[in-house]
Amino acid sequence: GENVEQHPSTLSVQEGDSAVIKCTYSDSASNYFPWYKQELGKRPQLIIDIRSNVGEKKDQRIAVTLNKTAKHFSLHITETQPEDSAVYFCAARGPILNEKLTFGTGTRLTIIP
Amino acid sequence: GAVVSQHPSRVICKSGTSVKIECRSLDFQATTMFWYRQFPKQSLMLMATSNEGSKATYEQGVEKDKFLINHASLTLSTLTVTSAHPEDSSFYICSALKAAGGPYEQYFGPGTRLTVT
Questions:
Q1: B3: helix, coil or strand?
Q2: Chain B: which residues have CB within 8 Å of chain A?
Q3: Is A70 exposed, middle or buried (0-12, 13-18, 19+ CB in 10 A)?
Q4: Do strands A19-25 and A4-7 pair parallel, antiparallel, or not at all (unpaired)?
Q5: Is the pLDDT of residue A70 over 90?
Q6: How far apart are CA A82 and CA A112, in angstroms?
Q7: Which site among A22, A39, B76, B97 is 20 to 30 Å from B4 CA-CA?
Q8: Are A67 and A83 in contact, with CB atoms under 8 Å apart?
Q9: What is the structure's pLDDT at B105?
Q10: Mean pLDDT, to the nearest integer, of B56-82?
Q11: Which among A93, A101, A107, A108 is the top mutation candidate for probing chain B, defined by the most B β-carbons within 10 Å of its own β-carbon?
Q12: How many angstroms from the chain centroid is the CA of residue B77?
């Protein structure tokens, strides 16, 4: 089955700086890669996703890049703000549309004011 | 929109009793829902995939007789933790797959914190 690894497990950055979180996946058939943000005690919320037919997607301060050959994808947050502090999870899904997501282990991001 | 609700948000029960958790998609139909549990500071662990009108598919190591899942309609799935024990205490989160007219994204419920005493 699919295996998703995520690094780093914790990340602290100064407010205004950029944060990068990286994930690798094992199944070359995976073609959908969402990123979720989870604040303490709350539900995971989809913040951005990318499909295997594109290499990069951007939404304001958030961007995701995908390298299918190397089987890794990354989340980039620029101009970080205190409200970006949360746990971020990457995930991967295969080609069957109602297939389960396989999640990474999460990254606790702390923005230092 | 795509809103998923869960009820109850918190429940405390005594060891040996059963607890039912409801997951509803409020503004869309979901033929597929997923149930996860999450321990503190850990990732989401998929327990089972629930498909409307059919039996749930359980992940390896999850006891199907202990965690009963019913997906009786296109907007409701329930998880019943039977004969609960303290080690079942956890944060249970459902998600619903929005398929119609969309990119098959998963939307999560707010979670249910179960404490078994």
A1: coil
A2: 31-32, 34, 41-44, 46, 49, 51, 91, 93, 97, 99, 103-111, 113
A3: exposed
A4: antiparallel
A5: yes
A6: 7
A7: A22
A8: no
A9: 83
A10: 94
A11: A101
A12: 7
pLDDT band at A52, cuts 50/70/90? confident
* A-B C-beta contacts closer than 8 Å: 48
* DSSP string across B57-100: EEPTT--TTTEEEEEEETTEEEEEE-S--GGG-EEEEEEEEE-T
CB contact under 8 A, A105 and B109: no
Which residues does chain B have within 8 Å of residue A105's beta carbon, measured at their own beta carbons?
A: 42-43
Q: Kindly report the average pLDDT of chain A as a whole number.
A: 95
- Please name the residues in contact with B15: beta carbons below 8 A apart, sequence gap of 6 or more: B84, B85, B86, B116, B117
Chain A residue nearest residue B44, CA to CA: A103
Q: Å from A44 to nearest chain B CA?
A: 6
Are residues B98 and B107 in contact, defined by beta-carbon separation less than 8 angstroms? yes
**Contact B43/A89, CB-based, under 8 Å?**
yes
* pLDDT of B100 above 70: no
Intra-chain end-to-end CA distance of chain B, in Å: 38
